[in-house]
Design goal:
By secondary structure, the protein is of the alpha/beta class. The relative contact order is 0.22. Helix 1 runs antiparallel to helix 2. The protein contains 2 helices and 8 strands; from the N terminus they run βαββββαβββ. The two termini are 28 Å apart. A 4-stranded mixed β-sheet has the order 1-4-3-2, covered by helices on one side. The protein is globular, with a radius of gyration of 14 Å.
């Protein structure tokens, strides 16, 4: 359904350190890195990038969308916990601690963060404990 999702950043170097750390426990790695062009792409190892971080093309400040977020599928609840704790250690804002969200479904386990640019991220696991 989607080709890719892109989040803007005002500090690419900081964003790459952040995303490298929080996406790794989810099995998502940096596959493309073109800092001279202001962007990088992430995805599962051996696949194509589906999540990009970049400086805005129009060279204006990056801003976060109100009511938008990207949710990354986690292989386990432990990976959700690691995503969240690494994000907080790197200066992200807590937008929802790891835990069950039974209003979505019985086994839905997720956590939410905001990165340094205000973009909202989630990691979620749909598997039973």
């Amino acid at each position: 359904m989607f080709s890719h999702i892109t989040f803007g950043t005002n500090d690419l170097e900081r964003a790459l350190r952040f995303y490298d750390a929080i996406l790794e426990p989810l099995g998502v790695v940096r596959l493309l890195s073109l800092p001279e062009h202001g962007f990088a792409g992430y995805g599962p190892a051996g696949e194509k990038s589906g999540f990009f971080v970049c400086r805005p093309y129009n060279e204006e400040d990056a801003t976060a969308g109100n009511g938008t977020h990207a949710a990354f599928l986690a292989p386990s609840r432990e990976a959700v916990d690691t995503f969240h704790s690494r994000g907080l250690a790197l200066g992200a804002t807590d937008e929802g601690a790891p835990g069950l969200r039974p209003h979505y479904h019985e086994h839905y386990y997720g956590a939410y963060l905001r990165d340094h640019d205000g973009n909202k991220l989630q990691a979620c696991c749909h598997a039973p404990a």
